[in-house]
Amino acid sequence: MRALPALLLSLVVAAAFAAPAETRQSPAGGFRITVTNWFTCATCTTIRGVVAGDVVGTLGGAVVALGPAAKGVAFQTLHDRFVVRAARGSRSFVALVNGRRNLETGTAALDGLVTDGWQKGAMVHVELRPIACTRSARGCYTGTIRVR
User: Fold this and answer.
1) Are 111 and 125 contacting, i.e. CB atoms less than 8 angstroms apart?
2) For a FRET experiment, which of 36, 47, 103, 124 has its CA 20 to 30 Å from that of 95?
3) How many domains does the chain have?
């Protein structure tokens, strides 16, 4: 009978020292989020999408600035704002990222920071590649968002 209070005490102590699920690091030392996104219309810069992995939910945002494609240059600069709305609201965040899109392959690589919400101040790296889809006349993209 004395073992029961000791067991309960050890469970309470273990729970007090366990990191809550909201702050636990993924095995790679950061958080990996898969994303599929698309433009909401043929002429606008707003995007919508879904996220999964270490954060599950939806993605919204926009291409804030798009650099002109210079003749003979295979890259175009991008400045994007991603709003991740987690199904578990405590993991929602906003990230501002800058990078470039390869005009030949359509792939993009962007880096920036979480500016609001979960993991505020953390570094962000985004990699996207085009995929075939019917959601948007401008195409869809899939890839990863890494938060460190």
Assistant:
1) yes
2) 103
3) 1
